Amino acid sequence: MKRITSIFAAMCLSAVFADAQVPLNTQIQIVKAEDARRFDATLENLLRSPNADVRRRAALAAGRIGNEAAIPALAELLAGDSSNAVRAMAAFAIGEIESVKGADAILKQAAVSLDREAAGGATVIAKSVEAAGKIAAANAKDPSAAKLSEAIIAVLAAESELGKDRNAEIVLAGITALLRARPAQSDQAAAAFLTDADPRIRADAANTLGRLRAKIGIPTLRSMLASDADAVARANAARVLGVSEDKTVVPHLIAALKDRDTRVRVSVIRSLSTLRDPAAVQPLIEYGDMLLEIYKKAKGPNFIPIEQNEFIEVAAALGQLIPHSFNEPALKLIREFGKLDNGFATEVYVARLRIAPGRGDQGTPELKHWQQYRTLVTIVGEFAGIEPTTEEGKAMKAEAPSVLMPLARAFAEADPKKDADTILAGADALRSYARFFTEDLDEILRIALKNKDVQIRTAAAGLLGERPTTEANVAAIRDAFFAAKGDRDNDAQLAMVAAIAKLDKAAAEPVLRAALDSVDHLVRKRAAELIRLNGLDDKFPGYREKAEPLRAFSPRNPTRMGQIIYRDADYRRAVARKNGSVKAILTTQKGTFTIDLLPEDAPLTVDNFITLARRGYFNGLAVHRVVPNFVMQDGDPRGDGTGGPGWSIRCEVNTVMYERGMVGMALSGKDTGGSQWFVTHAPQPHLDGGYTVFGRVNENDMKIVDTIVRGDKIVSVRIIGR
């Protein structure tokens, strides 16, 4: 009865979170503050509003903004607000801020966690435990981190002792907090829940053990892999067995290659690769042969079979298991795949090279697409990290730099307009060539710093940051930074600031000063971080204040990145939407699926997605990333994972958990979202509270998402609702 009651209470509290009644004008005030990353008297007053829904929403905003000045007010709410929903959100917000100044408030809450009524209920405890993990992870060297870790362990131990009366919400929060804080006893604390009656708890416990690379609970995990009713639990059990270093689990993993769920099979293949047991080679080749036969029958001019996902995993595993073996069945398998793929699945050809370092026995396809060029330069670059055993392989290793040099130079000088079909491989060409440390490398990288393609310049700056500090290199980065201040995108500027600060602190000062004056908040934040890390505080008085908050976009500015791009009408439109009122229907080459958008949880993120969709932005874009058992990702107009719409939006992290089918914004750091989004194949608790959730796909439509592979296209996105 206690368990049913606690779950019912959690459901009710979740409903309060989602259906909060906050006056529209107040919502607009709050969202404006979030968008500007501005914590001021207005928001502080809202934290003391007589309306509990307003206090809760203001607390979420304080967490999103991340200003530690909000901690005293949040701590006051956590300690004694009359609404448990407000207390829970205050705990969540303190965790989002990640400051040690919030540690005491969280530790006080943990101290009363055994008395759920005094603590404010299960959700308050769960959010406090979650916050403990985030603060401990962000401040690992601070003495408070150890105390917070002890609190996490204590809460989980108390829940474990309750047996069937334990609270699932608290346990799930605690298991993920272990993963973040990583206390010494974390593996034992997580393993205690491997046999829990709740499949989600079992799966999360195994997920944490796998990510901690723990080596305990092997008998239980073998049993989970063989017979657990939940596919995610089986998949996560397989992952842990892979890091166990226990070769006795190999037969159990091989048997699980017949599992009915692709997520389990993918985890099994990766684990067999990790364990490096020769007994796995033949079963993997046989499984690869089966996949290839299905692939051959289904492959069409505009259709990539789902079997490609697993085949790539099998090939990569064989590359790890049998390097330099010249195993003919494995080579035949890859050879047959190559006849259909023509050089697009880079990982497969890298595996072939590892198995047999040499020229291979099939002709190189005609190179027309940047992905084929990326495969070529990646393969040649691999010779920098292998030691061939044959004379042919040794000769190819010796020749590799001279093969790559003209390609690297050509890409460094390439024109994005004239070379549009291939230039996206430029960054990979530079990175591959850099692996050989040739005498002309710096010269080529300095040339690349002048390229009009932002990602070529980004790669060049990052690579030069690892090279010797020479006057020519420092000057080239400095000049390139000032030339890049007119960029529409900011990747190159961010890389250049970091590179020059690494090479020469003194020479970096004018660049850091200019970066602090950037209209782009992200550039200012990077400069402030580098000033702090390099101990340059005395050279830049008031630099922290200069980095905050965001500024409003002006048409005079060369970029829209890192600025406030919304106006009053935009905010009003965004916050007026309700969950359930608007959907996105995506037609793909594999079928149609629907995203139920969550505007109450992420109003500006949803509005941004709707705006792009109605402009036709997503129509025809290729899915550029699929990681089986993790995510399918789209929304990049470049197709290489680096593109965006030319502006950035603020994160709207919320309390919605990353279950299977959740839609989130892809990031390269806080507040760097733009157009790239992803759908989760399985629960991903380590993403909770870190990436904005703004939609969900129902289980029936996830059957379509599960079939999508890298290279499939989103034909169209249609918005239903306002």
As a percent range, the share of strand residues is 5-15%
Number of helices: 34
Largest sheet: 9 strands, antiparallel
- Mean pLDDT across the residues is 94
Task: Please give a structural write-up.
There is one protein chain. By secondary structure, this protein is mostly helical. The chain has a domain at 568-720: Cyclophilin (Beta Barrel), CATH 2.40.100.10. Helices cover 56% and strands 6% of the residues. It has 34 helices and 9 strands. It has a 9-stranded antiparallel sheet with strand order 3-9-1-2-8-6-7-5-4. The longest helix has 23 residues, at 391-413.
Any chance you could write out the topology, listing elements then pairs?
Blueprint: H1 2-18, H2 24-36, H3 41-46, H4 52-65, H5 71-80, H6 84-97, H7 103-111, H8 116-119, H9 122-138, H10 143-161, H11 168-181, H12 186-191, H13 199-211, H14 218-227, H15 231-242, H16 250-255, H17 262-275, H18 281-298, H19 307-321, H20 328-341, H21 346-355, H22 370-382, H23 391-413, H24 426-434, H25 441-448, H26 454-464, H27 471-484, H28 491-503, H29 505-516, H30 521-533, H31 543-547, H32 568-576, E1 583-588, E2 591-597, H33 603-614, E3 621-622, E4 625-627, E5 631-634, E6 662-665, E7 677-680, E8 693-696, H34 699-705, E9 713-720
Antiparallel strand pairs: 1-2, 1-9, 2-8, 3-9, 4-5, 5-7, 6-7, 6-8
